[in-house]
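Database export, one record per block. Field names are fixed; values are copied verbatim from the stored entry.
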Amino acid sequence: MAGDQTTIDARLDSLPVRRSSKLHILLSLFLFLLDLVMLTCAFILSYEARNEVTLFNIPQNPPTLERYLPTLVLHVAIVIAIFYASRLYHQPRAISRIDQTRLILVAVTVGSVLTYGMQGLVFKNTQFEVDYPRAMFFYAWIFSLILVAIGREAYRLGRSALRKRGLDNENLLIIGMGRVARDITHRIKSNPDLGYNIVGVVSGHNRAKGNLVGIPVIGTYADIPTVIDRCLVEQVIIALPDAQRIELVDLITMCQRGSVDIKVYPDMFAYMAGDLNVDELGGTPLITVRDIALRGWKLSLKRGLDVCGSMIGLILFSPMLLLTAILVKMESEGPAFHIQERMGLDGRPFPMIKFRSMKQDAEANGPGWTVADDPRRTHLGAVMRRTNWDEMPQLINVLLGHMSLVGPRPERPIYVQEFREQIPRYMERHREKAGMTGWAQVNGLRGDTSIAERTSFDLWYVENWSLWLDIKIIIRTVLMVILRRDSNAY
């Protein structure tokens, strides 16, 4: 045992660790000052735009900018306060640009409206009273939104660059050696902009040896307090989904040292349940472990989005859709469209429409998965599949109600019968309409990828649906196509 402890001490002494708290504080202060500057510039631009841009009536003899300084201070103070209340200075590391833009939009809108309403009340009958016209309010809102979003994106890129250089990284300890711990470790190592420095892994075995995805095992559970103190650990991830409750309590107790943040990977029950909700039945609390988010008025809301989106898409793209159909016919024999039976809502089959991207005899030897550089594709088909253009006729399916713009991607019945026997809860993804795009697809799970992992993403979508989630998925899909980020599009 003495030899093991000596080995552990040697490993801990050799680890390059550093505190990130000072730099973290400086960066948080910089973000606050950046928002301050951007909001101030936005208000000044709104004053100039009101006097120069002909979108609204240009005023005669407007008040000077100095007269609006109290209003400027009020505007900046209110918006900054809402930013703080909206946790825009305490965001998670992996928040997407779309989610951040939405939060900024809501905060700036609320702040601008409050400023417009409070300006007259606060400064009425004082030396600071000045007319705050609707045109200037509109410009202040627009410029604040644009400049803050630009500033935040520049901040994100700068901070990401620092983290890739090993700066502003928090020391992270991972507890566990199983598949979950391995996946988490690999994901963190593959994304240095998350800002983690993995100091090591703690194992539950009696002897600390080996490594996990190249990260050394530096101790056992009993060594956790020592590891946290010696390695200046700031974050702990307990990746033990099958751990007993008493074991988790003991581990958390050992990790509660100083200002260490502790994150626990959920057990299989929580994973299978999705979001847990507590209801009450005559005073008796009940935990809802299965709930369908999309029902009632939400169904009408989603259907309205589908109808509007599909009609707009068909109208806007109709010339290109017609041209594509002609080119498909010209390149090879066969119909322009390929109609294939897929499994949709409640496991009912429907005819899914696509542009034909393969040769007429592509499935002469039976159905098969599409693979990279598939020899069955036509030249035009290869281009269409890389850009997902072959799926645009599915807007007709959406308009007819067979599909939705967003939802689990439909599979052929022959594959559904196979997957339902291999993957738990697979058929539950058919509780909603199939979609042209989905949560799994925008997370890179399309083509020849794990069906089990795709299913878990589809089930999460089914149980956590919201209108904003659909809009977010559509935006991310468009960006993936434009920026060519989907490596599995073939």
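Remark 1: The first strand starts at residue 170 and ends at 175.
Remark 2: The mean pLDDT is 82.
End of record.
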